[in-house]
Amino acid sequence: MKSVARNAGGRDTGFSLIEVLVAMVVMVPGVVGAAGLVGLAARAARDARTETVAVALASQKLEQLRTLEWNADDAGGGPAESDVTTDTTHDPPGPAGWGLSPSPAGSLDRNVAGFVDFLDAGGRWVGTGNVPPPRATFIRRWAVTPLPAGLNDSLVVQVLVTNVTKAAATVPRQGPRRRLPGEALLTTVRTRTSR
User: Fold this and answer.
1) Which listed site, 28, 36, 106, 150, has its alpha carbon 20 to 30 Å from 20?
2) Neighbours of 47 (CB within 10 A)
3) Distance (Å) of CA 78 to CA 71, 84, 150, 193
4) In sequence order, which residues have a C-beta less than 8 Å from that of residue 135 and are 6 or more positions away?
5) What is the distance between the alpha carbons of residues 36 and 7, in angstroms, rounded to a whole number?
6) Where are the domains of the chain?
7) DSSP letters of 57-81?
């Protein structure tokens, strides 16, 4: 025996199968689209956090390099006293390094001894060398380049911070280096000052 609820007018109450299917056809794409947007927003927030940390780490190294001595000849004609021996690849810095000596070409694109260090996810120093240690999350590279002839009292100092996994997937390119998403590239110019 079949029982169907009827309202006062004698018609069936409830939804037909067709009405349910139409409602699903309308709602499912909206729900799927909203889920995709939530995933996209989560990725964007993660990338923004990584880039913020990268900018802070690049700024930290740039300030460290800016504190190194870079002076012009003294008034008596003596030689310029500039720091070309501090090892800035360790934390804290020590002796027997390159200081503000010019870096080899390509030191922003590959790990060059004396111009790279590695940091964990919290920005703590975990090592240096050509290969990132297992705990490394970020690679911090820097380049020190004298300006062209006639302006030899000035240096361009650049610091690049990138994620270890992105750096492994990046192939060095010809021409000027451009910042990739999630990276931080900071640049400053140092000029010798008189004492």
Assistant:
1) 36
2) 13
3) 11, 17, 20, 14
4) 120, 126
5) 42
6) 42-191
7) HHHHHHHHHHTS-BBPPPTTSPPP-
- pTM equals 0.73
Tokens of 81: 């006293």
What is the identity of the amino acid at 50?
A: T
105-141 burial, b for 16+ CB within 10 Å, e for fewer? eebbbebbebbbbbbeeeeeebbbeeebeeebbbbbb
- Residue 170: CB atoms within 10 Å: 15
What is the gyration radius of the CA atoms in the chain, in angstroms?
29
**pLDDT tens digits for 31-53?**
888 888 888 888 888 888 888 99
Give the residues across from 159 on adjacent strands: 142, 186
Query: 118: closest CA among 168, 68, 46, 69?
Result: 168
Residue 166 one-letter amino acid: K
Cα 109 to Cα 113: distance, rounded to the nearest angstrom: 13
Residues 84-108 have a mean pLDDT of: 89
* Least confident among 95-99, 101-105, 162-166, 177-181: 177-181
User: Rounded CA gap, 85 and 27, in Å?
Assistant: 67
Residue 86 CA to residue 63 CA, distance in Å, equals 14
